[in-house]
Amino acid sequence: MYRRIFGLLMMLGVLYSCESDLAEVDRIASIQAEEPVDISVGVTIIFSDSARVKARIESPEMRNYNAVEEPYYEFQKGITIYFYDENGREIQNITADYAVRKELAQLVEFRNNVVITRADGVQIKTEELIHDEAANTFYNQMPIAGYSKDGRNTFQGSSFFSDGEFKNIEIENTTGVMYLDENRVPGQ
Fold first, then answer.
1. Would you say the pTM of this structure is higher than 0.85?
2. Is 88 exposed, middle or buried (0-12, 13-18, 19+ CB in 10 A)?
């Protein structure tokens, strides 16, 4: 009798054990595979050419998705990029609350509170900015606004296109206010 009870308990234990193992297998199978990502914190990246610093990137966090079909870098906590001339002077910087760099497409997309500050103090603000690395151009299809250092001269537009140094800026549907000194005439 004890053998039968012991045998019955063993069979129930095995069946219960199998059920928990199967439930655990189902639970594990239902978990989505996590994407492989390298996360760096407190990031500073220096870009140089012939021992001259061209740019410096700073971000609280950088995520590198390098084991995916289309690798990319993501800056979820914001980014600032400083650009320098051949003498090491800062010529402009770009800040944004979010950025992503798509390696294969050679595009950098800046989003949310994007501010470009030039060395002359001019600020350009928008919600999206795209940098085509291959062509070294910047563009967007969203409203843009610009302000002189003293805040007297302003412009707004519906979209824009610029060279990599923000020297030749083309703005669509431009409106704005420009104050001229009495010795200066438009176009000079």
1. no
2. exposed
